[in-house]
Specification:
heterodimer, A: 332 residues, mainly alpha, two-stranded antiparallel sheet, 54% helix, elongated, B: 285 residues, Fumarate Reductase Cytochrome B subunit, three-stranded antiparallel β-sheet, 69% helix
Amino acid sequence: MASILYTLGAVNSKISRFLFVACLVVLFFAASINYLYSQENGDCLECHTDPSKVDVKVRVDHVTGEVEIVSMLVDEDAFHSSAHGGEDFYCIDCHADLEESEGEHNPNLQPVDCITFCNDDPGAEFLEGSHVKLMKENDVQPPTCKYCHAGVKSKRDVPKADDLYHRKDTIDKCGGCHEEFYYSYRNNLHGQVTALGHVDTDIATCVDCHGQHTILNSSDSESTLGADNVIETCSVCHPGANDNFVKHVAHPKYKNIAYYKSVFGAVKDIRKDPERISGIVKSPQMIITILFVVYVGILVMTFSGFGMHSVLTWLSTILDERKGKESKHDKR
Amino acid sequence: MTNDNHFLRFSLFHRFSHFLVIISFFGLVLTGMPLVFKDYGWAHWLYGVMGGYPTAGNIHRICALITFFAAFLHFAFLSVQTLVKKDRGIFWGPDSLLIQPKDLLNILGDVLWFFRLGSRPKYDRWIYWEKMEYLSLMWGTFVMASTGFVLWFPVQATSLVPAKLAAIIDLPSLALVAHRYEALLAAGFIFTIHFFHTHLLPENIPMDEAMFTGRISEEHMSHERGVYYERLKESGDLESLKVRPAGCGGSLFSKILGIPFLVIGLLMVGFMLSSLIISLVDMCC
């Protein structure tokens, strides 16, 4: 009985060994066939780094309709340091319609689909988020992946998340639409430091507070700045952030003329709509604005007063000298 | 006719304190102002020269500590004068830096002088605008230090605010506004009013060396601070203040030290003022 069992086991192991080798062989062939039919990046770069072989091309964005002239030359260093520049990325991963072509190819390729096979999660987060929903409701064209994730010279050099150019570019791109918030951000310490060119991860840009793809309104409790998450969000840079700290006004309005207009408007309508003015008064913006206005007053009064004093002292001294009124001087 | 008598106007202690204030003030202004004028090229350049982020910020904090040290020295001096030496003159009387009734008369006299309705009043030891500068330095240091600490330790500072008030009082934002505009006030004041009233007056141009050499000539003293001069002469204290005139080296040293600061300050005013004008024009048009 034991011997039968043993033979069976031996047969079994032989079969499994055979199957294993067979699988390996099949896999190897499959891989090499695939390899045979796919181009190495070098094949593409042979032409795409040679200015005598490739030139510029007019590209029409298939979503926005934006027309631009782009160079077909690939800057190898810039590409390799980009998010898609790793060893296991191939040109044809994105330009899938070139998979089986060899040599010269049709210049008009299919638009690259960033989302479907590779970046479906962030894509879905973004496309299903309230930011895009609101844009669609207002008939505004939502930005594409490539709009925000563009490299310095070419959209191809997709920057990594911590890339300094990308962080700066994000402020400009968010600010391009959200102008009011851009200026108020620049008026706060975060925005002042980033404006001077320091955009490293220890100073907050738009995405550090508002999140990256799921861009919810900050009044939404589920947003990164909502009641559930705000302490966690601020704590990334400010350890120990507490309930008081997170009430910080990151977008002060005291340099926004529209804010003053809304205050005056609310004062005018005080009888009709007392809620409005009480909302403005209870906001932390109010005291900040009062302090600003007081300081502007102090500055204007100090410099006009002392400035006048300086000028008059100068003039009077010179006039005295001319008249020889400096009696003490002369008598002695 | 001129004699070569010189008197001691500032002791070594006060000259050293003033030197500390100069060094720290310039460090603070040069590392802080670029943040205010962040939209202009000169600010980017200056911020880079000062080491950029975070170096410029660290220089700013070190200079703030030097300012605290100077303030500490000053309050230690005041304590010694009042508690140990029992000198009440620093609070009341002609030697005090606080505004006295006589100063109000001097202001009135100066206004009449501006309109050619009288001759210039004679001043005592401190002229009224010097007292105002001193008092604004006290006030300014207090505002800058307290708001600076809030900005340095924002999380700890906000925990001092009662929870009920936290919804309308945002301490870091208030501190930033006060720190920024008090800084503009201080830098603007020192680089224009202080410079023009002290150093760039027709009789002192290019600079009054008294705060560096500590010495003032008899001629200058009787002309600039007549009442003080007569008072000391009558009481006989004048002789005890008599010192050797500053040597050529001392004078040269104070010029080498003082004039670059003067030039940097005036350049900063030029940058700040032109940027302010440009941003006002931008806002209106």
